[in-house]
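Extended Data, panel c. Modelled sequence:
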Amino acid sequence: MGIRKLQNTINKKNGFSLIELLIAMSVMALGMLAAASMQYSAVRNNTTGNTATQATMLAKATLEMLKNQDIESTVLSVGDYLDPAPVDASGNPGGIYNRTWRIDPLGTTSRRISVTVEWTKFGSTRRVTMGSNTMGSGV
């Protein structure tokens, strides 16, 4: 009986069939595809968030620059203004941001300033708008 058991153990073929191997590889490939898709989405969302943050900082810097002007200066004259060409995150020509601002009167000694920064990325146009009231000279 001991010899017969030993022969059965030797003759038994253990391992994976080709079908089992193909199924395992398919499941692994599907998992790797899902991970690659998540990585692509994460990079794209980080880029979108970074671009929106830069646009917000550009709008804030423009608003602060305008608020620090003297109320009688021509910079705070009532009207609509825009950069002649798209600017980068620092306000220098050659970027993706289109910056516009509008100055409305609030009586004779104050102004309402609205700054809008627009950009197009990944096929969609986005916009950030900030506004503030000023009496000039940072007030």
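The two ends are 102 Å apart (CA to CA). This feature is highlighted in the accompanying rendering.
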